[in-house]
Amino acid sequence: MAQQVQGVVAPGKNEPVRVETIVVPDPGPGEAVVKVQACGVCHTDLHYKQGGINDDFPFLLGHEAAGVVESVGEGVTDVAPGDFVILNWRAVCGNCRACLRGRPQYCFNTHNAAQKMTLTDGTELSPALGIGAFAEKTLVAAGQCTKVDPSVSPAVAGLLGCGVMAGIGAAINTGQVGRGDSVAVIGCGGVGDAAIVGARLAGAARIIAVDIDDRKLETAKSMGATHTVNSRSTDPVEAIRELTGGFGADVVIEAVGRPETYKQAFYARDLAGTVVLVGVPTPEMTLELSLIDVFGRGGSLKSSWYGDCLPSRDFPMLIDLHQQGRIDLGAFVTETIGLGDVEKAFARMHEGDVLRSVVVF
Ligand code: APR
Ligand code: ZN
Ligand code: ZN
């Protein structure tokens, strides 16, 4: 029997979000219905509401979530009712060229649930990033569910579903930060701070945090930055070179998504170093670089999609480290809120003092 639950819907471009009754069908073959316990508010949800992703309104927002599997459809064997799971954007196939080369985030054959959730009048909803978890229950492909230790707080577990995984993964998976490396992180919001946590976990000797806001630099320090640079008052490329014996950082992680910070990242790396681009630019942005610098500097330039994570490997591992007290993912939860407070959480994003507002059920 299809069920009716409450969910946060973005009805049209720039219109305020509304809590609506939504219809969640029973899981079909390969699908699962998950009782959501927590879902973080991410910038991407705001972009959906603003029409910046696509025009497939109405959206069922929310995509950074953890919960308990309620029911599964035919053929589902990896998860079962009662399992505590973290949701990820899409199930990967495991067989395509990208998957076989160990780059599952670039899988050619990803999939989401085949059935659609709807409003009570039958209007089909587009779930944000194939999840739609600002809802008491949501329908996903079973392959989007990764089982983890159920003793962790759902608000913490859900964070790994997007921003925190993107940041930690940028350092440990994409950037391959190694013991003793010097790492610079440009932009210390939730994603940049998570990159700092990842760099520390990987054994970086120096972690240089760069931001234009002193409050962000303070938080970055508490996350593990060893040095901070305010790039409003100091040239960050010069400062990073000075702090690394004149060489530049072994790994520079860009977590802003602007041309000037891409350029800083390019020049702040050591000649053989790696630049990891996590900040998402807009389609209009371009960057001019001297070709002799591109040619002469060597090293590598990589973009990081979802932290190059393999959910089945990375989610349980990071939850384990959190439970042991070796990383503190709880530090990313600024506040827990109710389903009716998502619009307020969007407003708070701009104030710059929130890492994550997390809806709890
Ligand atoms: N130089 C340095 N830092 C900057 C600059 C700049 N020119 N402009 C903004 N910042 C800082 C902000 O002060 C803030 O601390 O970058 C940080 C951005 O943080 P958030 O807005 O909280 O964004 P976050 O969720 O961390 O995501 C960062 O990663 O995944 C992508 O789409 C995401 O592009 C976004 C980026
Ligand atoms: Zn997100
Ligand atoms: Zn694949």
UniProtKB/TrEMBL annotation:
InterPro entries: ADH-like_C, ADH-like_N, ADH_Zn_CS, Cyt_c-like_dom, ER, GroES-like_sf, MycoS_dep_FDH, NAD(P)-bd_dom_sf. SUPFAM superfamilies: GroES-like (SSF50129), NAD(P)-binding Rossmann-fold domains (SSF51735). Its cofactor is Zn(2+). Pfam families: ADH_N, ADH_zinc_N. The keyword Secreted does not apply. The keyword Heme applies. It comes from the Bacteria. Transmembrane segments: none annotated. Keywords: Heme, Iron, Metal-binding, Oxidoreductase, Zinc. Residues 25-176 form the Cytochrome c domain. Belongs to the zinc-containing alcohol dehydrogenase family. This is Alcohol dehydrogenase.
